[in-house]
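Suppose a classmate hands you a notebook page containing two proteins, each written out with its sequence and a corresponding row of structure tokens. How would you begin to make sense of it? This section walks through that situation. The first entry is reproduced here exactly as it would appear on such a page.
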Amino acid sequence: MTDDSVTPMMAQYLEIKAQYSDAILFYRMGDFYEMFFDDAVAASEALDIALTKRGFHLGEPIPMCGVPVVAAEGHLLSLIRKGFRVAIAEQMEDPAEAKKRGSKSVVRRDVVRLVTPGTLTEDSLLEARRHNFLCAWAEVRDEGALAWTDISTGELRVMPCARARLAPELARLMPREILVSDASDTPVTSVATDLGAAVTEVARASYDSAGAERRLCALWQVATLDAFGTYGRAELSAMGALVDYLDLTQRGKLPLLRPPVREALGGAMLIDAATRRNLEITSALAGGRAGSLLETVDRTATAGGARLLERRLSAPSRDLNVISGRLDSVDCLLAQSGLRNQLREALRRVPDMDRALSRLALDRGGPRDLAAIRNGLSQAQLIASLVAGVDDGLLTQAAKSLTGNEDIISLLDQSLVEDPPLLARDGGFISAGFDPDLDETRKLRDEGRAVIAGMQADYAAETGVQSLKIKHNNVLGYFIEVTATHAEKMMSAPLNEKFIHRQTTANQVRFTTLPLSELETRILNAGNHALELEKNHFNRLRTAILSAAGPIGFAAAGLAELDVAAAFADLASGEGWTRPRVDASHAFLIEGGRHPVVERALQRQGAAAFVANDCALTARDAPAIWLLTGPNMAGKSTFLRQNALIALLAQSGSFVPAAKAHIGLVSQLFSRVGASDDLARGRSTFMVEMVETAAILNQADDRAFVILDEIGRGTATYDGLSIAWATLEHLHDANRCRALFATHYHEMTSLAQKLPGVENATVSVKEWKGDVIFLHEVRRGAADRSYGVQVAKLAGLPEPVIERAKVVLEALESGDRDGGNRRRTLVDDLPLFRIAPPVSPAPPKESALEERLKSVNPDELTPMAALNLVYELKKALAE
């Protein structure tokens, strides 16, 4: 193509692309998805595939690249992870139909799906053990709401959410995509950047609350939403935006969304993004699950259970009845090890029914999804029988949801083979005996193959060509093939009257016969008919499953509940964890507490056992704060974190790594630990520290649990001490919460004498011959020094630096002892801080032995002289 004319195909492409200008368009052409123009350039770079050209447009070559349809899912995942959206345009008719309209007619195409980070359903694009949330935030007359769904499981939830709570709630959910109105200013963008979530602006009309209510009623086919709960205008607006967006991206094939669950304000422990990051609850600081609390405690056997566990750890409950019920179920299974082991073994054979159900609802499922429902419901019945005699409220309730699906199980058992193929178009997934018509058709198809084999033997005998084969391809159909050496015989009388020449290749010659052509027609018709019958059965089975979606969903939820309880019990049994006492008091008493992640790491390394420690915040009707001092590397940060994690685990319904634990309900968990900067936003390390500290002081209530480490260390000594001092006073006087406050400012230990709720504690160390030995034991009292120089020596600083540091430290400490202005005098008047030349270690003096050896020339030594030299050196060494 050398001119600028637009071909009909390219005109169709440009028309579709104009409707999806913000997405890469996968344009189906046969067995490939092709991309053109800027899409091709961007995709070739993102996917590292070849960029070619196809024709011209406006005088310029059209860039083009493509990916095979069969490998499209992997490329989709790469594009989504790199921030792209993808519109998939499929061929909506057979190319043969298009040709009937004329030789230049274009196959009709249309977008069937818009793939975005929050709308993934395929197993290959998702993490099986994590949710993939799509969120929508709405604000109506200063009333905010947050709605979220995972379309791969059908879960839909909503809650009131003011702007001030938006960041911590999004940090809890870790959504992949967040919807906001294009007509309102929103605080979402900066939060989404921190979370790595995509932000999508949708039309203001999608947020119309009146229209949203109508859409939601139509979705669940009800006249009113009252049966699901009472929702404010902002909540309706957020849910309506979600449904409208799903209708847009799924092109009218809405996922199987369950009725909404409304989460009450204050139902879960509030944990902000900084605290989640510092405590490494669901992901480590380095990224990923490895090294996180979630990875350490996850012993779930099912994908649904793993997702529920993550939700529990991300949002520990504040409802004492809920917490007690969960702990009871763990206690019950801990006491019955035989039942627990049987239950966990049965759970390991439970497939992911939630995601199979969602794929079937979106018409993206296959026979294996039908089998997943069958196998999951069958295992549910078995598990229900295992826990039938258990006397526990939560376990009993979960078991009730596992039964009542006998009809659908029977249907799937009778209709499906044991191990069906992935795709319906592959056929062979309907059991023999289920449909007599299908059996008859299959018999014809299969016997036809046997007849072909018999016909081949007959023709070989008739022609005397033993190498004669009957083969098949998509172009010629069935044909007879012989080598070129036998071709002349086949084309000579009398064989040429029966064997009709079809094709000659380099080494073979191909023939057919009238009986072979007739048999081919019968076989092909039987095969196609059998496949059509199986597809019809697939659609009927899919419909039957979707009609039972509610009970199936309840069964999946019950299995997840049992899985988490059994996993927590197995964890408690294996690690020696104990049941915490959680009540409405303000107590925080831990005996023999341990950090679960650090302890697990030590076990894997075969290192020394973790040193357990107590924590007793005992003040009544008053704040309770431990001021913790001690050297770096002694374990202060570990101690702070382990107590925060113990509180989190307890309210998640888990036993805890401690000999004993009594925890008064924690409403908020705050952590300011570690040093990091945020240069992208112009924030230094100290600025990040102050922002996070400000968030704690402005939000913590009297039921909060706060851990603070080294407040004020990022600035000058007096500035830092002043900030740390004032922060501790504010926690005590204004927030009146429970807190662990670690510091190197020993001057602050005097606050224990002035503030009744403050108590000093320190991490024990020993000094031996100038070195420091860490005991990792926390005891009441204050540290006398920080041992910073000794720690620097352990880190490997050069010896001259260590010696110089000791001199400086001694001078500073003597200055403190001599009076208020002595330190300043040191700086001004003494040579202590004047620039000194680098101190180099003196070269070691040569020993007498070294001098003697230098005088020896080995080449001049006789054997006897060498032996005498050895005796001489040995005698000198002895002296």
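The notebook's second entry, a different protein, reads as follows.
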Amino acid sequence: MRKLYVLLAGLFLLQLQSIAQAPPAGQRPSGAGAPQRPGGPGGPGGQAPAIGHIYGKLVDAKTKQPVEYASVALLRQRDSSVVTGMLSKGNGDFSLENLPFGPYLIRINFMGYTTLFKKVTVSPQAMAQDLGNIRLEPNVKALSEVEVTGQRSAFQMAIDKKVFNVDRNLTSVGGTATDVLKSVPSVNIDIDGNVQVRNSSPNIFVDGKPSTLTLDQIPADAIESVELITNPSARYDAEGMSGIINIVLKKNKKAGFNGQIQGGIGTNDKYNLGGNISARQGKWNVSANYNLNMNRNWGEGVTDRENFATGNTPKSFINQLSDSYGGGKFQFGRIGVDYFMDNRNTLSLSQNIVGGSFKNHDELGSRYFDENKGLTSRNHRITDSKFGFNNYTTTLGYKHLFSEPNKELTADVSMNLSNNNRNGGFTTFPQNLAGEPAGDAYIQSNNGKGNTNFYSFQADYVDPVGKTGKFETGVKGSFRNYESIYDVYEGGQYSDAMSNDYAYKEQIYAAYVNYSNAIKNFGYQVGLRAEQYVYSGAIPSENKIFEPTKAVPGLFPSAYLSYKLPKEQELQLNYSRRVNRPNFFQLVPYRDFSDPLNHREGNPNLTPEYTNSLEFSYMKQWKNHNFLGSLYYRNTNNLISTLNTPISAGNDTLLTTFVNANKNFSYGAELTMKNQIIKGWDITTNVNLYQTELQVRNDKESYNNRGFSWLAKVNSETKLPYNFTLQVTANYQAPAITIPQGSGGGGRGGGGPMGMPPSSAQGTIKGLSSVDLALKKDFLKNKAASVTLALSDVFNTRQFEIDQESMFFSQYMLRKRESRILKLNFSYRFGKMDAQIFKRRNNRSSADGMQMEGGQGGF
């Protein structure tokens, strides 16, 4: 197989290397974007004739195969400024003509190969020079992280982050961001789509910025990659106990005209259709993509609760069975425009538009028993609901590259507008002990709407210091305004007690500084971030206004130490302080009665929780293997915890509230290994072993909950004959204690359709496992088309089970959603690399040149 492409990280590393690598001693480096001077090397007015000709052929040093589309740049030896350049042709040939006399440097670089410099001199005695076959050596350091097989590796590992390339994940094709994250090492997704990293909730970004989109509203086919940063520096937001997950959307910057269309079908009425297209010519790059997802799904569950005897109330039992189905559709559209003002200034504008609607039907049967487990009553509830949403995100960005390498200024502003509406209700039918209708039904209906306006601005400045140092600083501001109205009707009559409206405003102002440097093999980075958080809320219908909470600005330091050992080994020690602020559902001070057995009420007096995170890592690279091992410790103060309390005479109704409790400790070891077993077979294994301890102390409850658990994830990719690729993903989560919602659950709040309260600290989640399979066939010229057949949860084992116990009750819950799904997807890639977009003229010749974007000499 011809090796044409490597992963994005390899490109980035090579570009940094090409910036940092200086020509021979005595030559002053300068960016490739340096201004062109008329004439030849002699400077302005030079009379040397432009008749020189340099040509040759690029080949892979190991395979002897031609290397096409490599960057060949001709630099002046005197100041490294660019004279001309081109891309190598399909057979590896390159030819630079109409060259003035003088000494030059030929710089050759391409993804996955070591940058090569060659000295040449054009003179009357050597006007035409054949450099012969120039052999390009693979960049061993870059290739140790990836497999160069004509496409990007599925995973890239580094000590500070992991990058998961979505286009290599076959099992998530046609799905959503939730399906993508299920395959990402270190990430755990529960049945409700809540995200955990190292048993705690991360902060989720889209294109490096907070978003009001949920994971189910982002199609997998619109995602380029997922970045996992477990211990972010001061440059990043301080929010998120276990770091940051950044979802990077597709934005094609390939030269010429490129695109892709895809579509698929899945069992139980699941469909997806979409595509992307891009065009780049001269100073403009335009890209767009669109995706449509439609699906139906089902769910079922069981709840068994024992209410303990208290005072004059005897023991009682409750059994609930739930059966639900629903579905809907959503559309995702994005368009982006880049304008390259010159080699050092770029303007970018992007617009996302997302919208959809979903319906759900749920039936819940409840039976009540006395202390002798004799049936006393029963009922049947039918719930119908409809939810719709729209989301609009506009981002304007600017980037300026200075003449000094790696010095840059970036700034962007973003506006996110979203709205939603929901309506529905439930009807409860009383039944006799035989399950037959008995009495009048209780009818409750509701409708509501909400909208969020989110604005942010950010500016970052990076300035190299000396040979290895770097200074970074920046500012950021974000503003969120939220309004919600929820109206409830009982028997057609408006219920003031159950209805509510709420509004809040949130502002965060931040500034940071970072400094990094290296002394031989020892590297360090220190940073400090300051964030001012302002929150205020109101209940307009009751004329209640909660005074703004404006605490002393929080300081969030970070420190990184690293030491490089021989044979591609590195040690690193990291520390950071982070914050987790209560969300809207935890703060809103009204009681949710939608589930008769599980009420919920927010607490507007909640305060943020703070986390100290310490991580020690070791990384080793071999030719075909990578290993990353980390030991981590995390403790959280002012823990946000849930509290479940009986509120009815028979102890059959629970009220879930939120309180600031005490502490949460978590420590463990995470091991990630990527192996190339044989050529064409890669396996990535991730194991996380951790111990969690909770201490809850308040005026109502006092308890400890601790336990050891582990998580394992294996991703296997095998290239088979006839352009087939097989992927297998296996997951196992061992039994673990529950994490209170708000301190790592990543929860969305509220009991589910089966009448289940949110997870509290008094429970244990049972172990669960799943296996996903996918088979892909590439065909047509250059593998332009492909068909993928994927089966998720092969053994239908993905379900959620939990045991809970407190001083008032014990409870077992099981929830199962549709997970074994067979999908068939087709995709077709098209486009043409148009080398003419790199054509330029200098004042002395019409030779083919290369537009060196950002002073980095090539793609």
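A careful reader of the second entry would note: The two ends are 22 Å apart (CA to CA).
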